Amino acid sequence: MLRQAAGGRLSRMEPREEILDIAAGLFVDRGFAATSTRDIAEAVGIRQASLYFHFANKEEILGELLQRSIRPTLDRIEKIESLAAEAGAGPDVLLHVLVVLDVRTLAAAPRNAGVLSRLPEVQRKDVFEPFGSARNELRDAYARLGTQITAGHAAAMTPDRDLLGTLLLQLVEVVIGMRSHGHRITPAVEAIVAASCLRVCLADQARIDEAADRASDLIGSLEA
Amino acid sequence: MLRQAAGGRLSRMEPREEILDIAAGLFVDRGFAATSTRDIAEAVGIRQASLYFHFANKEEILGELLQRSIRPTLDRIEKIESLAAEAGAGPDVLLHVLVVLDVRTLAAAPRNAGVLSRLPEVQRKDVFEPFGSARNELRDAYARLGTQITAGHAAAMTPDRDLLGTLLLQLVEVVIGMRSHGHRITPAVEAIVAASCLRVCLADQARIDEAADRASDLIGSLEA
Fold it and tell me: Which residues bind DNA (chains A, B) (predicted)?
């Protein structure tokens, strides 16, 4: 059903989705502290009481947005790992798949919600702790796969487990800044970020080429 | 001379430095929008009029803090390039030097001021444009050196100039997040971030080892 929203705009979104979408825009543009639930309700074109039917407060809205920038990736890790095990794929293929899917999650997050994870409020408030845990879980998956790839190398200047997870997550999050600057996240960008992650894990080019091939097959099966 | 600051604390800092230091803490902890020049003056233990003697407004304070997270690196690029030319050092050595110095700048920025560059206000307001330009200049230096290093490689999945600059700057800025989480930026971390940058530029391990050796000599001469 079409509903008339603020400014005469017609929206086909579900109310909950529309609240999230519009709140994300306000949080990014004005800041979280400067945005009230009243501002959000007005911008959506609903009464504040209707907003409270969906969300208890603005922290809950931000929490949900943050989760959406990370959960879709996390929820697929188990599936990726079991598919990879079936296919006999190694940690380099798995890392490639994980990076590509994570880049896509960030590229698809409404209004570049990944930016919101950098708000000072998010770093401090306990209410966003579930997001912090989810992010740690993701960094841990990167660290786990990364150390399996570096394991064969005796080189100096090899990152330890924690630093490797942090570096890989940091590389993937380049997408957040790129979206902020209006860049499109193309398949070429996905492939280069994934290859860069493998390079940071000391994989050589032959291994990266093979991982990329097998990764695209696996992503095909995941999405079938 | 020792001055009595808020809370009975004795400060040996110059007033201008102390305003910057305390403002950085407030901007990071409370957010930029929620901090007034009055709050800053009170926290420093001076009158608001005295603060205005040093800075016209809080934007100017934030602007100066942002510059300090990037200028010390930028100002040395020319010197690095001329020293490297004398020593006959290639782009891999130069990149290694630049990354280590940039990591140190970020590690030394008062109250982790690099975090402030992520405030939504900084992304939007024209008043912070000089910081944006300085950051572009730095990204450009990374892109220039990076493409000289990748030039010999015919591999697929090689980042183009812009993406390479963006990826390298992103890797270096891992230090900001690490400091936020209370990690120390050790010489080992500097070396690993620099090696990771060279890996993203497709440099092999022998080349990285040599670049690291020569880079530490060059950094020695720079700091002598």
Answer: 36-55
Strand pairing class (A10-11; B10-11): unpaired
Cβ(A65)–Cβ(A24) below 8 Å: yes
CA–CA min distance A171, chain B (Å): 6
- Whether residue B61 is contained in a domain is answered as no
- Closest to B141 in 3D by CA, of B86, B190, B101, B193: B101
Complex prediction ipTM: 0.89
Residue A20 lies in a domain: yes
Which of B156, B189, B200 lies at the smallest CB-CB distance from A199?
Answer: B200
Contacts with A123 from chain B: Cβ below 8 Å:
180
Last residue of a domain, one of B56, B82, B97: B56
Structure tokens at A213: 């091939």
pLDDT in tens, chain A (224 residues): 344 544 444 566 788 999 999 999 898 888 788 899 999 999 999 999 999 999 999 999 999 999 988 988 999 998 888 888 888 899 999 999 999 999 999 998 878 888 888 777 777 777 788 888 999 999 999 999 999 999 977 777 889 999 999 999 999 999 999 998 899 999 999 999 999 999 999 999 999 999 999 999 999 888 77
Give the other-Cβ count within 10 Å of B2's Cβ: 7
Asked if the structure places residue B171 within a domain, the reply is yes
Considering the domain architecture, whether residues A70 and A49 belong to the same structural domain is answered as no
A136 plus A218 within the same structural domain:
yes
Closest in A31, A171, A208 to B31, CB measured: A31
Which of A135, A157, A185 is the best substitution to test chain B (most B C-beta atoms within 10 A)? A157
The Cα A3–Cα A11 span in angstroms is 6
Q: Where in the sequence is the domain holding B217, given as residue range(s)?
A: 66-223
State whether A81 and A28 are in the same domain: no
- Nearest C-alpha in A relative to B181: A123
DSSP string, chain B: --EE-GGG-EE-S-HHHHHHHHHHHHHHHH-STT--HHHHHHHHTS-HHHHHHH-SSHHHHHHHHHHHTTHHHHHHHHHHHHHHHHHT--HHHHHHHHHHHHHHHHHHSGGGGGGGGGSHHHHH-GGGHHHHHHHHHHHHHHHHHHHHHHTT---SS---HHHHHHHHHHHHTHHHHHHHTT----HHHHHHHHHHHHHHTT--HHHHHHHHHHHHHHHHHHH-
CA atoms of A100 and A193, how far apart (whole Å): 8
Domain count, chain B: 2
